[in-house]
TrEMBL record:
NCBIfam families: argH. This is Argininosuccinate lyase. Its EC number is 4.3.2.1. Transmembrane segments: none annotated. Residues 11-301 form the Fumarate lyase N-terminal domain. It comes from Aliarcobacter vitoriensis. HAMAP family: Arg_succ_lyase. CDD domains: Argininosuccinate_lyase.
Amino acid sequence: MSKENNQILKNTNAKILDEFNASIMFDKELYSQDIKGSIAHSKMLAFQGIISFDEQQQIEEGLLKVKLEIENGEFKFSLKYEDIHMAVENRLTEIIGEAGKKLHTARSRNDQVCTDFSLYVQEKTKSIQNQIKDLISTFLDISSKHTTTLMPGMTHLQHAQPINFGYHMMAYANMFKRDFERFSSSYERNNYSPLGSAALAGTPHNIDRFKTAEFLGFTAPTQNAMDSVSNRDFALELLFNISTTMMHISRISEELILWSSYEFQFVRMSDEYATTSSIMPQKKNPDVPELLRGKTGRVYGNLISLLTVMKGLPLAYNKDTQEDKEGVFDSVKTIEISISILNEVIKTMIVNVDKMEKACKIGHLTATDLADYLVQKQNMPFRTAYYLTKDVVSKANSLNKDISELNIDEIRSSNDELKNINEEIVSYLNLKNSMNSRNSFGGTSTYQTQIQIENIKNWLQTI
């Protein structure tokens, strides 16, 4: 190989290695957190007498100028500087000179990246919580309007017992409440500052980690420098919390897809969130809920990816953890747009009350009420009541009726043991009465549904 060709190959390999090794093209997402952390670090250095207050002021003003350049699109990101930390520090030094070179005193990129990433995760935890709070409010609004709207409650996707639609929506409100609380727990547990841990063992400089933690809004500094620079639990928790929330989004998306089908027709989604087929103009496809359901798998993948990266890492910092950010950035963007869109889908959907009530007359939803009545009022063993109820259901089927539509004579004629049954049984088989009879705490009655709504409303006012 000629010297010229050999040099070309070396240059090509060097470029490939630069691209492989660098993180600047994705960790630039952390520019704001990096600058925030650097300003806090510079203030601490000045307070501790490690740099002068004049140098600190130069550093802070220079960093704010760098931030403005980035936000105005004037900053040139280059593989030359490998990551966001070096890119910012290099530009700072270009702007203010020698003082910029003092910024990195008493820290390492190891604790710097952990601090930046922790700040990002904490900020996104709070913003996602605010979105979840808005979504819960939407569920409360629709639940409040439908505490008397009958719909078939299902198990195994089969008609089971009559419930109200508000009650069904409150099931999701409670799911997302748990999500909110899960993010809260993670925020509290992870709100500790790694800054000042340096490479892995701390620093000989007379720093004050409590001061930088305070400047950055952390509860306190982390306890062990080695653990601090190798810890990514905070990112894993965010990914898990996002995955769980997306699982809940996927579940309601599945129900919206079913409910908007011809077979159900319980709801009609706004045209804004559904599309027509490219060749069948009569079709209206639930594309948005389908995408929400599909994107859940995407965030699961990001969680498993980071778990796998962290699985066998020795202490302390390892370059493997450069792979920790892209999946987090992707999952954050996915959950943010998913919650926003789901909120609008729920707000704008039309509930077909008549279709829901009509569906309650399929599957003999009040059969359990008959069995319960025979046990409670006739003092029958449950198993006897169970078989008598089957006879009443058979009678209803022979008449092409739902059990809730039978009159007293039809009920009595279904079995000799029921020939003297009290006429009040007819009211027990009424769909609305059946729904309201489930008045135990957490039940589906209108009254209990209203209590659930008030409880969540009161909780929202405390957060």
